[in-house]
Every structure is written in C-alpha cells, then in structure tokens.
Amino acid sequence: MSAPPTRLPGTDRALAPDLARGAMLALIALAHAQVLTGRGLAPPPGAAPVVDGVTQALLTLLVDSRAYPMFAALFGYGLVQLLRRREPVIGTDGARRLLRRRGLWLVVFGIAHTVLLFTGDILAAYGILAVLLAGMLDGPGRRLLVAASIAAVAGSLAYGAVLAMPDPTDGVDTPADPLTSALIRVAVFPVLTPLNAIMAAAPVLVGVWAARRGVLTDPARHRVLLRRVAVTGIAIAVIGALPQAARTTGLWAPDFSGAFAAGALHTATGYAGGLGYAAAIGLLAAYLTTRSRSGRGTAALVACGRRSLSCYLAQSVAWLLLFEPYLLDLGGTVGPAGASVIGLMVWAITVGVAVLAERAGRPGPAESLLRRLVEPRPDR
C-alpha cells in the first residue's frame, strides 16, 4: 500500500492518529478481557500458575489505567481535527455546536452500549467531555495544560479510592438472565460515567493541546518531543505501577491507606503511560512515512483505527457472548493469561473485519450511524 508522507492514501487523514487508535484497541481488549477471570483486578489465587501471575503483573504495569488515557488523548485529538475540518464549511460557532451535538449522541450511544452489552462504557463519559470542552478547543495552550494538571490530580484521587476498595464482585453470583444483568448495568451507569469523565478529562485536554500543534498530524516535525514523551512516559508508568502490581499479584496486602496511595500513584502515572504510548505510535508513523510502501500490518491497524468506534463496540459484543452466564459463561474459567489470549483474539478478529470493510470501501457502521445522526443534512 503506497503512502505519501504523514497521510493515508486517497484521504486527508493523518496516518499517526488512526494507527494509534488501531493499536490502542488491542490494549483496550486486554483490559476488558480480564472480566473473563471473574476477579477484576483482584490477585490470582495462591495456587495459580506462574504464567498467570506474570501475566497479571504485566497487565498491571503496561495495560491497566494505561490504555484508557491513550484512548482519551486520541479522542481529544480527534475533537480538534473535526473542528478544523468543519470550521471552513459551517464556521466556528457551527462547528462547536456540531461537536456538542456529537457529544450528546455519544451519551446516547453509551447508554445503549451499557443497557445492551457491557458495564465498562466510556462513550457516555467522552460525550459529556465533548459537550463541556467544545468551547475550550481554541483556548490558550497554557490554560489547557493547567486544566489538565488539575483534572489529573482529581482523576488520580478518585480512581485511587476506587482501586482501594474490595472487589465488589468477589463471591457474588453473576445474574443468570438478560434482564437482571441489564438492570445491574443500568444501575451502575450513573456512578461509573461521571467517574470515567473525571478520569478521562486530563488526557483529553492534553490531546486537544497536542492536536492544536499537529504533534501526530506531522510527527516527523515533532520527533524530539515524541521521543521524550514516549521514553519518559512509559518509564514513569512502569515504575509507578509497581506497588499496584504487588497488590494485584498477591505479593502485598496493604490496608486502605496503602491501597489508596498505590491506586492513586498507579492512575497518575498511567496518564504518563497513555501519552507515552501515543507518542511511541507517532514515532512509528514518522518512520513509516519515510518508506515508499507500508506493510499489511500498518494498513490493517489503520483500517481498524478508522473504524475504532465500531471495533470498540464489537469487542463488547464478544464480552457479552463470552461472559454472560446465559450465553457461553466463561467468567471465572480462565486466568489472566488465558483471558489475555482471548482478548487479543477478539481484537484480531475486529482488525480482520475492518480490513475487509476497507477493501470494500465501507465505513464502520457505528461511525456511519453517528455521522448521519450528527449531520443529517448534506453539506451545501
């Protein structure tokens, strides 16, 4: 597949953001697949195989609370890209109204996602942030970073408290019928959605800041910044996750205050890790644009990234089929290693379907529906 510098063939889309979204969905799959263990982030039992302990440690160090910040930063980046594409057509005020309308529809998508498929929705939280932040996208860069810093502290403290609490599913039977399961998901939605919005606000704002400078749109020009963020961010994330990894592998059983400190540190350094991953993908994109042709793997990730909403929802369909007791009921039957293999297989299937859609010239169905709902009238 031929690829001109920093762009996707035949489009005005930059390579790095879509490449990052495609790769990011692998991390999301690894994070969500842990529901198959039936323990959430609780440590494996004492007699668990060594491979499960090692896998759980790697998931804590590299995935948990690291995938979502990357997702959020890319969402913020996409808000600015959409604003800039629409401003010449409908003006700044019209573009902001469009972003708010898109945010409201994302909330609707999130509610439907929760009711029908999966507890861990993030679409509604992102929709709320889109509505709230639409007027800040062209604000001073310093203000964006200050707001991101404040939001990072709030998110770290809030999720640190959540991570310090006992696993609420421990010893609780999973509901065996679709209606009860859906009602439970609806009941936790008003709690999880504001929490997810608080957690995501900081990386979304950093993504806005980065998009305004074209950091991923033209990664070759920002190699020095991207290299520093990638190396420093990922290193901080790994080091900061060590106490939490000791908890999730059963090596350390602190009281609430120790668990809260470990969870808050884990979340705070996860922001750095998510940004580091995005920067690393930016560096990869900068390298790929120096080549006359990009490989099939790159094309596949880009196809997935261009349909990230559809692929994200498709993963949730898989978790419903695999986890619910009235369907395949695999919850609690596999350890972290097995869950990770299943998660990557689910992601790989979505990538394969995205490639087929790309070859057929078809957009993702969720993206297409959202576009029609947000912009029901054609451009004039």
Automatic annotation (TrEMBL):
InterPro entries assigned: Bact_Transport_Assoc, DUF418
Transmembrane regions listed in the UniProt entry: 104-132, 144-162, 182-208, 229-246, 258-288, 309-328, 334-357
Domain named DUF418: residues: 210-374
The keyword Lipid metabolism is assigned to this record: no
**Which is a Pfam family this sequence falls into?**
DUF418
What are the record keywords, sorted?
A: Membrane, Transmembrane, Transmembrane helix
What is the name of the protein in this document? Membrane protein YeiB
Q: Which organism is it from?
A: Pseudonocardia parietis
Q: What is the lineage of its organism?
A: Bacteria, Bacillati, Actinomycetota, Actinomycetes, Pseudonocardiales
